[in-house]
Amino acid sequence: MHIPRRKIINDPVHGFITIDHPLIFSIIAHPFYQRLRRIHQMALAQLVYPGAVHTRLHHSLGAYHLMCLAINELKNKGAQITPDEEVAAKAAILMHDIGHGPFSHALENVLIPGVDHEEISLAIMHALNKELHGQLDLTIRLFTGNYHKFFLHQLISSQLDVDRMDYLTRDSFFTGVSEGVIGYDRILKMFVAHDNQLMIEEKGIYSVEKFLVARRQMYWQVYLHKTVLAAEKMLVKIITRARETGAISFSPSLNGFLHKPHTSQTVHQQLPAFCELDDYDVIGSVKCWATHEDVVLSTLCKNLLKRDLLKCKLQTERFDEALVQQKTKAVMESLNITSHEAGYFVFTGEAINTTYKLGDEHINVLYKDETVKGISNVDNPLIHQTLSMPVKKFYICYLNI
Amino acid sequence: MHIPRRKIINDPVHGFITIDHPLIFSIIAHPFYQRLRRIHQMALAQLVYPGAVHTRLHHSLGAYHLMCLAINELKNKGAQITPDEEVAAKAAILMHDIGHGPFSHALENVLIPGVDHEEISLAIMHALNKELHGQLDLTIRLFTGNYHKFFLHQLISSQLDVDRMDYLTRDSFFTGVSEGVIGYDRILKMFVAHDNQLMIEEKGIYSVEKFLVARRQMYWQVYLHKTVLAAEKMLVKIITRARETGAISFSPSLNGFLHKPHTSQTVHQQLPAFCELDDYDVIGSVKCWATHEDVVLSTLCKNLLKRDLLKCKLQTERFDEALVQQKTKAVMESLNITSHEAGYFVFTGEAINTTYKLGDEHINVLYKDETVKGISNVDNPLIHQTLSMPVKKFYICYLNI
Amino acid sequence: MHIPRRKIINDPVHGFITIDHPLIFSIIAHPFYQRLRRIHQMALAQLVYPGAVHTRLHHSLGAYHLMCLAINELKNKGAQITPDEEVAAKAAILMHDIGHGPFSHALENVLIPGVDHEEISLAIMHALNKELHGQLDLTIRLFTGNYHKFFLHQLISSQLDVDRMDYLTRDSFFTGVSEGVIGYDRILKMFVAHDNQLMIEEKGIYSVEKFLVARRQMYWQVYLHKTVLAAEKMLVKIITRARETGAISFSPSLNGFLHKPHTSQTVHQQLPAFCELDDYDVIGSVKCWATHEDVVLSTLCKNLLKRDLLKCKLQTERFDEALVQQKTKAVMESLNITSHEAGYFVFTGEAINTTYKLGDEHINVLYKDETVKGISNVDNPLIHQTLSMPVKKFYICYLNI
Amino acid sequence: MHIPRRKIINDPVHGFITIDHPLIFSIIAHPFYQRLRRIHQMALAQLVYPGAVHTRLHHSLGAYHLMCLAINELKNKGAQITPDEEVAAKAAILMHDIGHGPFSHALENVLIPGVDHEEISLAIMHALNKELHGQLDLTIRLFTGNYHKFFLHQLISSQLDVDRMDYLTRDSFFTGVSEGVIGYDRILKMFVAHDNQLMIEEKGIYSVEKFLVARRQMYWQVYLHKTVLAAEKMLVKIITRARETGAISFSPSLNGFLHKPHTSQTVHQQLPAFCELDDYDVIGSVKCWATHEDVVLSTLCKNLLKRDLLKCKLQTERFDEALVQQKTKAVMESLNITSHEAGYFVFTGEAINTTYKLGDEHINVLYKDETVKGISNVDNPLIHQTLSMPVKKFYICYLNI
């Protein structure tokens, strides 16, 4: 008897993850993918939730696992999915975050202004596709939504994709915030492919309701927690100040992105350098800069390392400019710095909870009589309320003196 | 109404951890303690178990939580514990691992040969005690076992201490290896203080049995997993080679420990430098050395980063010297290196499972009639077997060519 | 050393429950309390959720455990609670459901029209208090809300009492409906006693939001699940028909309640007989009546036993009378029965979700500046929506022919 | 689009169980199967573990689910299993316990001396097979081991069958005894069919070790817990005394089995009556007999209902006859009964833990080089010890006066 090559990976969240296709093995073994081990999924959330130290690699393995389950469910319900489509969908979800840089969202558009991670993910997929002699052609079509079986794309990217299902479940697991538990297994059981679209069976509506509420809770309790926000904004300020003062990093790759202008185009040329970057370059540099001669930079770095964070407040109205002025003045005097420099320690902004953008693709519900309704047309006031709720808060961060 | 200062921390393993004493707040806020955020609890086990990325800080918070529960149980059963003793015991367990360096056990006795982490923990406690004007006097007595209520020391360090209970539970949780679940809550309920000794009530024997078996399973399945072993030995070889070749790190603190001889005494003088070190210095350096001119060093570093690990085999008998020779020769030819250099890619050693050292302090069982028996005298063949089982395996690591 | 009498009980939901007071032991050992072992917590929900077979005894032990935790939290935050008050509060919650009859809510007001279970619980407490020579005096005052430390009553009975926290958690656990998980541990941590009232700290608002949404989900997905509703209404019809036809039960106690008129007053006289009743009397009788000569009674009984349930539909509008007529006619013809008899197989009604009665006691939120707001005045549209949502649906049950 | 008929059932233990084949639907809907809802899986264990009230129906659904997973794994590893074989294996496991009578093991061989539940299960399968026009032919062959793909039988009944995997997991879940958690998912992943035999891959040995230890722990901590033993023996004594005194039950079916002699043959003729029996007949009768004129019968019944159980002790040596005499005499005097009658309140016996009968079918381990070893020949002393440990204890039960 021949046992085909299979590997099982322990995942405390989903149980055992099975790898059983050569293409999936190739992707996972690639240094570009292994790099995701060194990028925290939740950036600096661990400063509030000490368990939240899981990685992008772990999340994308989890999303891959949910993709396996989802495809199985759809096939059991009669959807036609060929083996090639199946492995392409799995490959796509495995790589959906491969373009994330150090500290993912926290530094997105900061290290490389104007270029988001999806664009880089796609670029890396193209690079890998060359190495793999075109084996990722279909993967790329699914990822970009250029394939007639659109439900496969929707499993990768839509309001109810396996990406969101994994990260909410995983982030809830590792933070210990039980409010974020979404019951993904029931949602998966409710999936159905209809007219090439991904839909939810009617009796899954309560699960969608639960999903939307849980997601909202995770935003305000975790992702936009005021202390997490403060820490991540400090990291942004550190990068900005390092760039401004020309502070050098020990990491040649990081230096390249800090001190040379980049556009979407140059990034493509610098892909190998980008694929060297991870959280270790950034924190290693922060450790070095803690003794930098620039007092703004060194203070930010020192304070971040010892978790002496800026104070942060969130509210539904914009903060009074007078308050900002007062805090700024106090910092200028206390640290003996200029008004511009004080801006690194006192600043305001907007925190946005993007639970469900109404302009975004819809979640469709398939009724028993085969009618289809968008989720916002379903007779469920709690869903309407969740969807239409204010999604923006204003924050102020300041050095407590 | 005055609400005393309290903080609750989400722990996915134990639920909510409560901090409610000024001394505990002071310790947690100290940079020496915050450093533990940047040291992985399980070194490189995450290369096999992707969820195992939790930190020493998280573990010591968890052990602190179990200490709170244990003290509560003992008091409910009539043990006399004063408020001062209580906070001292909590402080001691919080700091029991504060002397761990980068990658904890994996590099223990490697970065600083001959000095183990308990010695450094104690040195750091003394340093902190000075800062805190003697508030840790009792803590240090409990930690070192110089106090008449010896059961408080045993909660910190003994066969059934809260340290082991936390790390087995936590490591099992984050790896997803259910075999390591120990039922710590029942063990805690079975604790009793008798004649100033920590004991287990008679009906807790099955829980002890479970604990010992679980621990054994974690050793062979996780801590001494052949792939984890290979990765951690590669890290040791990297440090050794860096030292040998005089490779410079970007981190001044790491350089100090790499390239200057250290004894137990000099370490005490270098405590501040030691307290700068964490996993980021090591992995940052490994990233730099991946392009080092020394082919041995750069190969080890590159391979570790892309998880291209040495092969590893474990067996109960010593490996045949001829096999080592053969593998060594192959590497010498393939990489064009000397026999000495090939020793970085082909080597053997012993992996030891220290489930229960018979010479170690005993677990005592208190019977209903107040007689006391050591666990190895209890009528339970499974416990005897577990305690007396072979605890050593031989390993070989080699570069697969 | 004297170990006071203590007992720990394994609870898969909360872990270990500790019993350590003689009064609590006396109550638990009493036959009136042990009877609760033979009353299912969720009546016939197990016909849809096979795991939901837990008992009233288990639930009240769980609520007792949460009371222990809640009191501990409040004391840690400075609330003055004497040992006598503590044990009285625990005794009260332990007995809060002691007046439930067979199949609890499903047959409430059916076996004994016009008398609800709280009234009987109180009567039983008075009876026990006599046996216990007045040891329950304070317990009864707390239960009925006649005590100045009103927060102790609110822990027993209010919008956020430990009763609801336990049953939502427990019912969610045993059904496997993850949507009902409420994070009770965090709510408990947010409790505070202020001006003798039970309040929630400001930062607990998201947990309250979660609690209200979870509760709503449990109502529609579990408690008012159409199939559960159908089964429980069949049981009501069986009791009604048995009464109407004078069908005799093997159980003398059940016969008494079936065939003699009862008022609130006679019930008090018949307390011993009531305390003999449990689910076994009812199901045992249903098994006997499955061969009863009355075709209506025997059909209902047979069908319930083999889980051949009436069809049930739920909707937001009242059902059309014509539909009822049509279904009734079909049944009359098929079973050859009268219109009155067909009413046992075709009927309509209202299912009510009592998430939060606005006239009910409020949940109060305590802000950091010590202001207090009712939960419906808090700035949280999702809570408002949940509170104000339609709580009623109409149902029709009918025999499928 | 046609969605084939599918049903998902919430199981708190395994998640969602999917039913998707007409034959499986037919079996589950049959009154013979629905009867299992009214038989507790763990008899009277709930008197010690209040959560242990789950049913035989729930367990057999769970075993069915594990069968689905196991077959999937084997197919993924290349085993040839036809759709017919697959559904037959699922049907067989679903019905493996269908022959259990009231209180399962506790009354096995008591209500019908000399006939065990497997024999009755098989008889019921044959009866159902007639109704289903031979659809269960293959099911019966698999169940009885008369099919060349023997591994399918081994999944149903062997040392590592899905039956044991489900009941250990489920009983551990509902009792809350974490020591019984076995990691069934990993064992399933290690299954492989080789030479038509079910085997475990080499790297699954630690999981087998864990399984054997967990099972042993469940025996001594739960199944043979002294208080559970006492309660179940009281139930046996009640049945025996009712038979002896000719006490009549309200249940005609129970009367038939109490008061008429039965052999294996008559049982087959009385199958319909047997299929009417469940826990409700027994407990309903116990409630009636609590006021029976025979003092032995009524005392046993009353005490069982109020959980006033016989004392029970377990030890490795046989109890001294003098002790039995002394206890017996005390009961004779106290209750004013004969020596024969006192035997209902004072008695001894043997409790047996059948972890792994060495004469039983072996667990086979498949090594990478395709050699096969029986588990007791594997190089693992802990497994040997577990397998060879004393499996018998002696007990005494007596009325505490």
UniProtKB/TrEMBL annotation, chains A, B, C, D:
One of its GO terms (molecular function) is dGTPase activity. PANTHER family: DEOXYNUCLEOSIDE TRIPHOSPHATE TRIPHOSPHOHYDROLASE (PTHR11373), DEOXYNUCLEOSIDE TRIPHOSPHATE TRIPHOSPHOHYDROLASE SAMHD1 (PTHR11373:SF4). GO terms for biological process: dGTP catabolic process. Residues 56-168 form the HD domain. This is HD domain-containing protein. Signal peptide: none annotated.
